[in-house]
Amino acid sequence: MTKEAKIVLGAWAWGDNQSYFGNSYDQAHFKKVYDTAIANGLNFWDTAYAYGAGASEEILGNLMQETPRQGLVISTKFTPQMADDSADPVVSMLEGSLERLKTDHLDYYWIHNNDDVEKWTPMVIELVKSGKVKHIGVSNHTLSQIKRVQEILGEAGLKLDAVQNHLSLLDRTSEQAGILDYCHEQGIKFFAYMVLEQGALTGKYTTENPFPADSVRARVYNDKLPQLTQLVEALKEIGNKYGISAAQTAMAWALTKNAHPIIGVTKENQVLDAAQVEKIRLTANEVEQLEALADKTGVDTIGSWEQDMREENR
Fold first, then answer.
1. Does residue 226 belong to any structural domain of this protein?
2. Does a structural domain hold residue 218?
3. Counted domains in the chain
4. What is the CATH number of the domain that holds 89?
5. Is the pTM of this model over 0.90?
6. pLDDT tens, 65-80?
7. Backbone dihedral region of 299: left (phi > 0), alpha (psi from -120 to 50 degrees) or beta?
8. E strands of the chain, at which residues?
9. DSSP state of 124
């Protein structure tokens, strides 16, 4: 059985063509990133058809060919909003992903959002039975929806293996809604995306050095950077105790929550940072300090495609 790295490398920004992240890197650029990851034992990759309409999957699929498939853990997603009008759009999107990734199976396949639990969940059951998918996960689902997915899969003799939600110091609603604890109790792996808030918690971007002006990230984060100064300084200060950076401290916070952080990587140094922090855990006092400062910012980073996971408890 393939050993899964605790930290997952995200390919959301691969094939971006400057539309969201403000980069235009080609496959040759990402080959160096990929090779660095494999050399450092990071074998778990997360992508989606929704990332560049298949461009991310295609780049990753090409690079994967140099690595024995059994040494990789590959995760991609079915996005309901991008479903075609075929008889079985889940199978249709899966087949396209397998073709672009140049593989005959996926380790994790996710229902990308909670568009219609009753409609989409039953459609993934045959994918597992066929052997094309090893583990089923859901992303951006509330606690009640997660429980309903479990029921549907359970009736077919299957189980929900993973949940992937936004979790960072600036969006702890999945934790506050009880999703994180529930996953741990049920033996469901919790994957945390946007742990670094797309760079806002790394210390790289400041009021003097904001996000690229024409990117979506700039519109989301640039006006929030002043409020984040104290939090980022605390991330740096705590990180100094461990010999790590602010970004790595934010990753360590997620690891301390027993979550699997998904770290978007576009450069080799980001991969090396992820590899270095895999075994670091913060103290309870350090977690408390960071969360208090995060709450003090008053910053809301829930995306337009997301929801406040606490809302159904109100």
1. no
2. no
3. 1
4. 3.20.20.100
5. yes
6. 999 999 999 999 999 9
7. beta
8. 8-10, 44-46, 73-78, 106-111, 133-139, 162-166, 189-193, 260-264
9. G
